[in-house]
Amino acid sequence: MASNYLLDDERVVRLIPWGKLRKDEDDNVVGVLPQAFELRPDEPYLSSTWCEYFSGAQDQQLRCAIEAIRNSNLKVGGKAQFAVGLVREIRQLVDARPNAKKIRIIHEPEEDNEAHAAMRHWPESDVELFDLLAQSVWSMLYNSEAADALPTSECACSERGQGK
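The structure corresponding to this sequence follows.
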């Protein structure tokens, strides 16, 4: 099967654990820490979940992507949040780095998440880049309550999700 590269106007969601959220002195979430975008030692790519894999309106697609994460093998803590990023903006920042390899964001389904997307050629360590991503591209956050307030749908696979 041919690779299904995500389009510039599509969105991805990433789970941000409580410990990787930026908080003020009262523990109110004010953003994402750059560490949320660091690869683990054995990770060949950064994982995310593709919203447009699902059919429906944008808010329904986002809710389905969040539910896909919740229903996966990932541990979603009660204080974790979900960051939404636009593919175009992620690509622009990552690809603009000195000596960067062109990032590829590809639909790569996993057993526990059919909407999984891999961000290949992700930099292994670039704190300045990760901080820029955290403060701009990945700054739209949904806590559990906000995610639950999004409209639901049947979360059917879209034609794009099927590779059409």
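The CA atoms of residues 96 and 102 lie 9 Å apart.
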